[in-house]
């Protein structure tokens, strides 16, 4: 059985204000007389009873009663709904929308040695990266080529080899363009000291970074701004691996020999 305080607590929790028991409750407080009065009939009440619209019917627009002024709703400044903020794009969508970044170009790797033989300068690829030794097969081949061209077969080595990249670490640009500018500036400075009649470019790195050309220019003469006339030749290692190329070298050499022989 429920006591009166607990019974009222339950009714308050269920939001029941007025209630009447169907039977006499033990331990209940006496009933209030005003609650036992008869309820007034529905017709006497001033209710505006309207039919409930069906689920598939649109609700009718409210109409103002005759003689009654329609109510105009004036929005208050604080009641105006703010537009919903646009959701921020996820990080993945922003990365896809951004243009792709160009991958950094790795610095080229090569070693070049500058030599002088008579009135010619030779920019030669060092395939091993080390300076020429007197008994190196590649150096012996170079001496044979100079002898066949009518030039001294003991060329003078000018300076240290040009090794690229210059720095192992650091933020300096060491890409192909920087390498090309450095090699061309290096050779041009030596030409200002002592001009030459023809610059031999031996090896693909010498051709690529001094003349901005590739292997298609082998055996041809090139006119370079600031460097004069140059002769493009395959590398010494390539000539030893493919001896048939020596015939093309000799054919082109015979057409150019008069240029440096006339100076002597």
Percent range for β-strand residues: 5-15%
CATH top level class name of the largest domain:
Alpha Beta
Average residue pLDDT: 80
Unreliable stretches covering 5 or more consecutive residues:
none
Distance between the termini: 134 Å
Q: If helices are DSSP runs of H or I spanning 4 or more residues, what is the number of helices?
A: 7
**Largest sheet features:** 6 strands, mixed
Shape: rod-shaped
What is the CATH T-level topology of the largest domain?
Uracil-DNA Glycosylase, subunit E
Widest β-sheet, arrangement of strands: 3-1-2-4-6-5
Query: Please, what is the CATH homologous superfamily of the largest domain?
Result: Uracil-DNA glycosylase-like domain
The string of secondary-structure elements, in order, is: HHEEHEHEHEEHH
Radius of gyration: 51 Å
The domain tally reads: 2
> Which bin fits the share of residues in helices?
25-40%
**Structural class computed from helices and strand pairing:** alpha/beta
How many strand units?
6
The CATH architecture of the largest domain would be: 3-Layer(aba) Sandwich
How are the elements arranged and paired?
Layout: H1 4-13, H2 91-97, E1 110-117, E2 120-125, H3 137-148, E3 156-164, H4 176-193, E4 198-202, H5 204-211, E5 221-224, E6 228-233, H6 236-241, H7 245-261
Parallel strand pairs: 2-4, 4-6
Antiparallel strand pairs: 1-2, 1-3, 5-6
Helix pairs in contact: 4-5
